[in-house]
């Protein structure tokens, strides 16, 4: 998840060690902006955690702090969605290592009409929103939308 890009719905914690006034916990909105002390509005969607740490470090260094020790962590990932032939379709909290099989378990399993071979995902970070056929062992990412289709008897 080192290359994970922040997006709307993610809840992050920005902490500068030894500087309690610079600790910010926020959930990213659709605008992707974070109002950070001394630096103002920062556009953080599309950035990795490391890129955001570097941006804040460079912004605070010199004028405000000599050597700021910045740490950014993801408190809560944006949800993924699963619908179609599952018992409880809807949005669920993402967890690292989540597979389609685990996602179905969170949705209380497949219905009796579900096809375990006709499962599609639209990746949350895919601007074209193209459905991709996947298997039960495919890893999901935050913001993904999974569709489980019916099987024919």
Set out the fold topology.
Elements: E1 11-16, E2 24-27, E3 33-36, E4 40-43, H1 49-60, E5 70-76, E6 80-84, E7 90-92, H2 100-106, E8 114-122, E9 132-134, E10 145-150
Parallel strand pairs: 6-10
Antiparallel strand pairs: 1-2, 1-5, 3-4, 6-7, 8-9, 8-10
Summarize the structure.
This protein is mostly beta strands. Helix content is 12%, strand content 33%.
How would you portray this structure in words?
12% of the residues lie in helices and 33% in strands. The protein has helices spanning 49-60, 100-106; strands at residues 11-16, 24-27, 33-36, 40-43, 70-76, 80-84, 90-92, 114-122, 132-134, 145-150. Strands 7-6-10-8-9 form a five-stranded mixed beta sheet, with helices on one face. A three-stranded antiparallel beta sheet has the order 2-1-5, with helices on one face. The longest helix has 12 residues, at 49-60. The model has no long low-confidence stretch (mean pLDDT 93).
What labels describe this entry?
153 residues, mainly beta, five-stranded mixed beta sheet, 2 helices, 10 strands, elongated
Poorly predicted runs of 5 or more residues: none
Beta fraction of the residues?
A: 25-35%
Helix fraction bin: 10-25%
Q: Biggest β-sheet, characterized?
A: 5 strands, mixed
Q: What is the residue-mean pLDDT, rounded to a whole number?
A: 93
- Number of beta strands: 10
By secondary-structure content and strand pairing, the structural class works out as mainly beta
Rg for CA atoms: 19 Å
């Amino acid at each position: 998840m080192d290359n994970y890009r922040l997006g709307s719905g993610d809840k992050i914690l920005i902490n500068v060690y030894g500087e309690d006034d610079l600790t910010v916990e926020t959930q990213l909105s659709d605008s992707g902006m974070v109002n950070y002390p001394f630096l103002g509005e920062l556009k953080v969607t599309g950035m990795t955690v490391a890129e955001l740490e570097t941006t804040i470090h460079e912004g605070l260094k010199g004028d405000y702090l000599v050597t700021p020790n910045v740490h950014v962590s993801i408190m809560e990932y944006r949800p993924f969605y699963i619908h179609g032939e599952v018992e409880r379709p809807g949005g669920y909290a993402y967890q690292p290592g989540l597979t389609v099989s685990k996602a179905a378990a969170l949705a209380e399993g497949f219905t009796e009409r579900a096809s375990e071979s006709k499962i599609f995902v639209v990746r949350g970070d895919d601007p074209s929103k193209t459905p991709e056929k996947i298997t039960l062992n495919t890893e999901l990412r935050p913001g993904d939308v999974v569709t489980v289709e019916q099987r024919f008897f």
